[in-house]
Write a structure and sequence with these properties.
120 residues, alpha/beta, Rossmann fold, four-stranded parallel sheet, 5 helices, 4 strands, 17% strand
């Protein structure tokens, strides 16, 4: 089973409004359901530039993670480019064999990762 760790921003202010938080939480629940139905082990971790990446690094060191999926809030915000690069660097340092993917809103996540792993 391919293990995917999705890292994205916290679903709380100042990162999101309450309304956006509800929408994104529902979207993430839908992604989780589709990923599990497709046979992936899928988990979500929330992190921010303010909180750092300690938990992310710990999980990469202690769990088998085959892919890191960087969430759309990080990928889509040019102001978070440095944070995105920190995530990429941490993944490469702690789990060098893991594929690092940026969420592509034009694709269903199982399709995006299936392509990355050559399953489709």
């Amino acid at each position: 089973m391919i293990s995917v760790l999705h890292i994205g921003l916290p679903l709380v202010p100042p990162w999101l409004t309450a309304e956006d938080s509800k929408k994104i939480a529902a979207r993430l629940a839908d992604i989780r359901q589709k990923m599990e139905a497709a046979g992936y082990r899928y988990d979500i971790l929330h992190a921010s530039p303010d909180g750092g990446l300690t938990e992310f690094r710990d999980r990469l060191r202690t769990e088998r993670i085959d892919a890191v999926l960087i969430g759309g809030g990080v990928v889509g915000d040019p102001k978070l480019a440095a944070f995105k690069q920190q995530i990429i660097d941490a993944a490469r340092e702690e789990a060098p064999m893991a594929k690092v993917q940026e969420l592509d809103h034009t694709l269903e996540v199982p399709l995006q990762l299936g392509r990355a792993f050559g399953l489709l």
